[in-house]
Amino acid sequence: MREDSLNKLSSKLTSNTAVLSLLFLWLSITAYFRPLLLPDEGRYAGVVLEMLQQGNWLTPTLNGMPFFHKPPLLYWIDMVVMSIFGVNELTARSASILGAWLCGATVFIMLRRWQGVQAGLAAVMVLATCPLFYLAAQFDNHDMLVAGLISMAILCFARFTEEGAAARRYWLWSAYALCALAVLTKGLIGVVIPAMVIGPWLLYQRRWSSLRKLFDLPAIGIFLVICLPWFVLMQWRYADFFHYFFIRQQWQRYSETLFNNTQPVWFFLAVLPLLTLPWSIVAPAALRRAWRERSPLQLLFLWWLMATLLFFSLMKSKLVGYILPAVTPWAILIALWVCQRPYRLRLSAVAAVLCVAMALWAARNVPEGHRVVATMLQQQMTPHSKVVFIGDYFYDIPFYARLHQPIIVLEDWQSPEVEIVDNWRQELKHAANFDPQRGADRLIETQHIDSLACMKTDLWFVVQQGMAVTHPELFALHKLYAKDDVELYLSKSTERACAGGQGAPSSAILGNSVISHPRPARRYGSAPPARS
Fold this sequence. Notes:
Strand order of the largest sheet: 5-4-3-6-8-7
Structural class: alpha/beta
Radius of gyration: 26 Å
Helix content: 55-70%
Distance between the termini: 65 Å
Number of strands: 8
């Protein structure tokens, strides 16, 4: 009897290991084939590399200045993987691959328990071969990781509410811990979406006991212990952090049109079926069946899909990756319908080929970025050289060039457009306002470019094509590269003419300018108040 039990356990573990190993291989196999896409992947990979080089595990930085668009969990994961396996495109995408793999593994395990092995296999197969899910797993931003954690949290909440489930409380604690990690990935949606899904689902079924048990003090304590310390520490260090992160980057980005990517309310209703082909072809039949039967689980997946679509459709600023938390229930509902259909393997083969084809097409056709310029900088710069960006912030250059020195960025920083347009200028300006001293050294008004001529080091100018270097006579520029959207110039310290005798730029730059907002008495760059 004991031997039979061990054999069954060994067989089960082997089966699980095989499925989950194949899933990981599938999600990561083409992640190394293409350069970092701009701006997102270059930005976040650069933040990770900066933190790793500085040994700074707490404050995300952009060009050495605090960067609080997103919390740090993605950066932490990528930092760990980079420190072990080296700095490259694959390790830069490790957090997204991990989020997708954990999501697929949880879907497989839960569906196998609830609906049987065939349903579990079908669910992970459909999910992993949805092009949107597959490509998001290989894209370095926060969307896939937070979607995976949200999906895992909802499934753990559902497991907790099962009648007679063993160790129910541990599933609840796991769900709260996953919500906390999701908040550390992208903010409040990490807890808002699971609450929007589980709460109404239990209310509709009048499961008052399960609803009451959700408010478990140890579970709430676990949530706070995991996610609260980082936010409190940042507020302690930077007086206006809470306002900037929760009001500007969370609430205003959701509710106002101050940011890019404004799309109509039906945007995600078109994106979801289009980017989950060919599975979305059978989605109408799958949805009709789920609504007709309306079992508790089917109701959960239907409501999860509807609530997520509604939440993000009401958002003013929309990006394709935002809808990833809805892909999980969408894939599960489709899988429950196709798992007994004889053509499911043909559909999965078509879907897999489409995923790989899209990944390979992207590897061949997306812009190369600025790796050539970065390689030239890496090979020819001396440790004391300075890099100057004009006309753009070339996010991928610090990553590919492995720059340790901060970059000087020339721009009209006092222009009202900086606060109006949601782009690299605004990101750097906001970062500088949290650290005015570093901002003063790195963000320089274009009209004061002549102050650079007196710096006693070589200057490497990376210039957006079509932009001019003002006062070129001061710099004795050597043009080394010009292609596509970028030009590279070298100005040797021994060949420059210093006009005015000033050293490194100081007062003629950005200095202590602040971002205007409804509370002018406080500014992002102010020193933290004294603490007892």
